[in-house]
Amino acid sequence: MVTIAVDRVRRVAGEVTDPEIPVLTIDDLGILRDVRIDGSDHVDVDISPTYSGCPALETIQADVAQRVRDAGYENVTVNVVLSPPWTTDWMSDAGRRKLREYGIAPPRSRGADMRLLQLAVECPVCGAAHTNEVAHFASTPCQALRRCGSCSEPFQHFKEH
Ligand SMILES: [Zn+2]
To answer: How far is the CA of 102 from the centre of ligand 1 (A)?
Structure first.
């Protein structure tokens, strides 16, 4: 019973979206770390910030708490877990696909091999591999502004972190 309840709360909490990139849920981002329910129905949800000082974090915390309460659990604590720190490698494949469809080049997967970072950032508009960074910080600190060398369209890149 407890496992079913935890799974349900986890699903409900995971549907909270990132206020800065509303196509991504916190489940897509990989920042929902853990859900626990104790014997007196008190819910603990652990989330990690994408970047330290991310202004979206307070909004996400409030949204998670509200959704858990809506699911029938009045007592909920949303904990911020800083260690181990979040990296873009935790973003799900579904999250990467949604980002691309939204017009933002997803972070490249670093995996165990840092040389992977030499891989091209593909243009989300035409798919060309030849793109150049125009500005390291775009509308949010986690994104860079790039321009495609093929179709010339500017686009945002969710930087590896
Ligand atoms: Zn292009």
So the answer is: 14
| Residue 120 Cα to ligand 1 middle (Å) | 12
85 in any annotated domain: no
Distance 64 CA to ligand 1 centre (A): 37
- Report pLDDT digits (tens) over 3-26: 899 999 999 999 999 988 899 999
Supply the range of the domain harboring residue 127. 96-158
Whether 100 is covered by a domain: the verdict is yes
Round to whole Å and give the CA distance between 20 and 128.
26
Within-domain flag for 90: no
Residue after which a domain boundary falls, among 80, 108, 130: 80
What does the mean pLDDT of the chain come to?
90
CB contact at 8 A, 32 and 87: no
What integer pLDDT is reported at residue 132 of this predicted model?
Answer: 94
d(CA 84, CA 94) in angstroms, rounded, equals 23
Q: How far is the CA of 89 from the centre of ligand 1 (A)?
A: 24
